[in-house]
Design a protein that fits this description.
Helix content is 43%, strand content 24%. The protein is globular. It has a domain of 126 residues. By secondary structure, it is an alpha+beta fold. The strands form two sheets. Strands 1-2-4-3-7-8-9-10 form an eight-stranded mixed β-sheet. A two-stranded antiparallel sheet has the order 5-6. The chain binds zinc ion. The site of zinc ion (ZN) has 6 residues, from loops. The site of zinc ion has 6 residues, from loops.
């Protein structure tokens, strides 16, 4: 209890400090924290949610959200404090990315409170940046209709197509990897002996994506366009993988093995992606 109050006082102090800054404004830059008992998607900018739970319990909540929520959300998990701090400001619904009349992907976004993330990075030795990728959404359905329509696929393959499309939610997006590299570089500049990690929770499992030791040196001080280009390169490697037959996606095992292949393609000497499917 003490720890919780102390922590809230700290976040409160940060918010206070901020609102006393040179730029005077009616509303503080960051909203006050509010203790809640479970991790939920919160699209209000009046407060941020703080949850006291260990990592395993928190991931259990996130798995539920990945299955049922219509919007993304993000948090920082502090292992030493066993606290989850919401860092997602506003979530935007999914959108299909179409290029030359072809679906090249779909993305959803959650905009983070960068000030809160930065302060958490400054104040903590170990932190894990978490966000969810939702499994079922209107746009995934739209995407499926689009593919079915374009390929004149029979209804009997709908499940396979749905699994094929959703399998990508198990992986960090190109933007996620880019942000992770930029965050990690900023974090290690602040705290070279600290530990930062990024994880995405989907309906399939937990996927961790980090810079390797070599990657820390490689990306050190690089600008965002460089990281963007690097990430694009990784993604084109993944896109170059030969798609298995649709039948593969008729089972969870088949879909999981495809996710393992994709994850492998997104890893190299500088970036490591590891995928942990749910045990059941
Ligand atoms: Zn993401």
């Amino acid at each position: 209890m003490h720890r919780r109050l102390l922590y809230l006082a700290m976040v409160g102090a940060m918010v206070f400090q901020n609102s006393q800054g040179i730029i005077r404004q009616d509303k503080p830059l960051e909203p006050p924290p509010r203790i809640v008992s479970n991790l939920v998607v919160n699209n209000s900018t009046d407060y941020i949610n703080v949850v006291e739970k260990n990592e395993e319990e928190g991931v259990r909540d996130l798995r539920q959200l990945a299955e049922n929520s219509q919007l993304e959300e993000s948090w920082v998990y502090l292992p030493l404090e066993t606290l989850w701090v919401e860092i997602g400001k506003t979530s935007f619904p999914l959108e299909i990315i179409v290029k030359n009349k072809e679906i090249i992907g779909y993305q959803e976004r959650v905009e983070n409170y960068t000030g809160i993330v930065f302060k958490l990075m400054q104040a903590h030795w170990t932190l894990v940046h978490y966000h969810i990728h939702i499994k079922k959404s209107g746009v995934v359905k739209e995407g499926i209709d689009y593919i079915v329509d374009g390929l004149k696929i029979s209804d009997s393959s709908l499940l396979e197509i749905e699994n094929l499309v959703s399998s990508a939610t198990a992986l960090p997006s190109a933007l996620d990897i880019r942000n992770m590299v930029v965050h990690s570089d900023a974090y290690y500049t602040l705290n070279s002996r600290g530990q930062i990690s990024h994880k995405v929770v989907s309906g399939y499992g937990v996927t961790e994506y980090t810079v390797t030791e070599e990657g820390r040196r490689f990306f050190s001080g690089r600008d965002v366009p460089f990281v963007d280009k690097y990430t694009e390169g990784l993604y084109s490697k993944a896109e170059g993988l030969k798609l298995p037959s649709l039948r593969t996606f008729g089972s969870l095992e088949g879909t999981i093995s495809w996710i393992h292949q994709l994850k492998g393609a997104l890893s190299d000497e500088n970036i490591q992606v590891t995928f942990h499917p749910y045990a059941k």
